[in-house]
Design goal:
The chain is an alpha/beta fold. About 45% of the residues lie in helices and about 5% in strands. The protein contains 16 helices and eight strands. α7 links the parallel β5 and β6. One of its GO terms (biological process) is microtubule severing.
């Protein structure tokens, strides 16, 4: 959906070539999702999505072809060039161009004609008299249908144009970098897609959603929280929680990391930080999510730290402090880290909510197992309650990897009976392999290969930091 939103935005502002590339990329993504989808209802929705996106792409391609075919004939008849004859004085042009080194015969004024765009391009030709091509300014845009995963038939009730950030005061390359690589509208992750973590969901709802529902109440001492830090072992759902906040609040989602602010030019990192928060205020309500916060906001050291890193951290601290100065523009800073003890004290103070996202309990692991195995066939001897009890110490990502490994075991059993894997496609069909159930022995075998990714000592360290610095 991110590429589709970007394509429509480029159409609105006249960047047709970028829109074509974004449409083609989104169409490829939807077709890949269609191949992977097993649910019949979602399959029908994706088919309709592909049809509508293809229709939009065809409309845009016809529009681009029409603009390319519009040419204007020369105002005077073509005559052979004579080096002894000087060209007539040209009409004043709106654009500044270099003078040719040798005067040649021209066909008339170089200024744009009335009713056409001011940009005039001259194609390369071997003739002495070039033809002038003028592209008509397109004032109408092709009609685009609104497509969403949840309901492809829902249409936007209001026809208000999408806001476009004014980049005249900033480096356009930096603006494009933020728009292409950072902005995600409607990440399509909801609370129901995340198992467990009910206390964390409640805190995030209070920090992000309620200030939008009751703006007059959240003022003064009740002002919204500036920042929320999610810390805990890897694979526990911290990034999914951030995306769910953006989806439930219907806000613009900015996802950044340390590499986003990396640049070989001096001062570009600070400019990107300032531009990021300016765009977040412009597209408010917004959620700024910084992944792997410890790599960007580690403890400042005057001895070994580079000057550029100090300037970047200083600018980030300033922007976080002034993030919610305008009360009508809500911006929430969400951060995730696996090493909270490495954070600088100044950043820890500005992240007013520090929530521990720990390993899933038995009930949550059972819910995860049901979700992961809902699309495959299970044997009669499979006991999910027993599996949930055996996976003590597994993170959400570990449980998913365990299910994936066990789901491949029936295919491995069939291939073990074949001498040559190259002929397996001829002897075995995909439907035949899918009918093979996953048995309890497959899960027991997978548990020997997939071990927990987080040690007990690390979990103890997280809990000690939560006891000292946690703020729920």
């Amino acid at each position: 959906m991110q590429q589709l939103d970007l394509a429509r935005k480029n159409v609105r502002i006249g960047r047709y070539q970028l829109a074509l590339n974004a449409y083609k990329s989104s169409l490829i993504t939807f077709k890949e999702d269609l191949k992977k989808e097993v649910d019949s209802a979602k399959t029908k929705q994706l088919i309709e999505v592909v049809r509508l996106v293809g229709k939009e792409l065809e409309s845009l391609q016809s529009l681009v072809a029409e603009t390319k075919n519009i040419t204007i004939s020369p105002s005077t008849p073509e005559t052979p060039s004579d080096p002894m004859v000087w060209a007539p004085p040209a009409k004043p042009a709106k654009t500044i161009s270099k003078k040719p080194p040798v005067p040649k015969r021209t066909t008339g004024g170089s200024g744009p004609r009335k009713g056409f765009a001011s940009s005039v391009s001259t194609p390369k030709t071997t003739n002495t008299t070039p033809k002038t091509t003028v592209i008509r300014r397109v004032t109408s845009q092709p009609k685009l249908d609104d497509v969403s995963y949840n309901n492809v038939m829902d249409k936007e009730e209001d026809n208000e144009e999408e806001k476009v950030f004014d980049s005249t005061m900033y480096d356009r390359e930096l603006v494009w970098l933020v728009e292409k690589s950072v902005i995600q509208r409607n990440p399509s992750v909801k609370w129901n897609d995340i198992s467990g973590l009910e206390t964390t969901k409640k805190t995030l709802t209070e920090a992000a959603l309620l200030p939008q529902l009751f703006p007059t109440y959240f003022k003064g001492i009740r002002r919204p929280w500036k920042g929320v830090c999610l810390f805990g072992p890897p694979g526990t759902g911290k990034t999914l929680l951030a995306k769910a906040v953006a989806t439930e609040c219907k806000s613009t989602f900015f996802s950044v990391s340390a590499s986003t602010f990396a640049s070989k030019w001096r001062g570009d990192g600070e400019k990107l930080v300032r531009l990021l928060f300016e765009m977040a205020r412009f597209y408010a309500p917004s959620t700024v999510f910084i992944d792997e916060l410890d790599t960007l906001c580690s403890t400042r050291s005057s001895e070994n730290e580079h000057e550029a890193s100090k300037r970047l951290k200083g600018e980030l601290l300033v922007q976080i402090d002034g993030m919610n100065d305008e009360t009508d523009r809500t911006v929430l800073l969400l951060a995730a880290t696996n090493r909270p003890w490495d954070l600088d004290e100044a950043f820890r103070r500005r992240l007013e909510k520090r929530i521990y996202v720990g390993l899933p309990d038995t009930e949550t692991r059972l819910d995860l197992l049901k979700n992961c195995l809902s699309s495959v066939k299970l044997g009669d001897d499979v006991n999910l309650n027993e599996l949930a009890a055996k996976t003590q110490g597994y993170s959400g990502a570990d449980v998913t990897n365990l299910c994936r490994d066990a789901a491949l075991q029936p295919m491995r059993d069939c291939l073990d009976n074949l001498e040559d894997y190259k002929t397996a496609a001829e002897q075995l069909s995909a439907s035949f392999l899918e009918e093979k159930p996953i048995k309890m022995c497959h899960f027991n075998s997978a548990m020997k290969r997939v071990n927990p990714s987080c040690s007990a000592d690390t979990i103890r360290k997280y809990k000690e930091w939560e006891k000292q610095f946690g703020a729920i």
